[in-house]
Structures are given as C-alpha cells and as structure tokens.
Amino acid sequence: MTVSRIVHAFAGSMILISLLLSQTVSPWWLLLIAFVGLNLLQSAFTDWCLLARILRRAGVPESAAEAESAAGRA
After folding, report:
1. Nearest CA among 73, 68, 72, 74 for reference residue 2
2. What is the pLDDT of residues 26-65, one digit of tens each?
3. How far apart are the C-alpha atoms of 24 and 33, rounded to whole Å?
4. The pTM is what?
5. Could you give the CA distance from residue 24 to residue 16 in angstroms, rounded to a whole number?
6. Other beta carbons less than 10 A from residue 57's beta carbon
7. How far is CA 24 from the centre of its chain?
8. CA-to-CA distance for 59 and 43, rounded, in angstroms?
9. Which residues fall within 8 angstroms of residue 70, CB to CB, at 6 or more apart?
10. Residue 1 CB: number of other CB atoms within 10 A?
11. Directed axis angle between helix 50-57 and helix 3-24, to 10°?
12. Of 3, 14, 18, nearest to 65 (Cα)?
C-alpha cells in the first residue's frame, strides 16, 4: 500500500468508528468526525499531513511504482 491509500483508509476508518461511537456511546464523538474533516481540508490546501509524514519516515512507498520496485527487490 502507498502513503496516500493508507491516509485515506485511516481517515475513513476514523470517521466510521466515531460515527458508530456517537450513536452507541455519546454524541460528543461527532467532534472526532469534525476534527478528521478539518484535517483533510487543511491538507488539501497546505499539502501537509502528519500521518503521511510519519508513514514516509517509516519507509512506506509514496507511489505504486515505488511499491512495485520495492516488491521486486525483496
């Protein structure tokens, strides 16, 4: 998986989890949805995302081509 796919999967998971928690535990969990949405919006304008930065430092490939070349080397 690439950085972009992981970031999208993580954001989607956080939204679904917080939606479920807001319905079963407390409506205050909707604040997490708002936080994720605001982070996605600021990332669109600033092209900066903390999770993407962490994943890059961890060696996750940036693109599908990098992922394929890494798989070929392994």
Report:
1. 68
2. 999 999 999 999 999 999 999 999 999 999 999 999 987 7
3. 15
4. 0.83
5. 12
6. 8
7. 24
8. 21
9. 61
10. 11
11. 130
12. 3
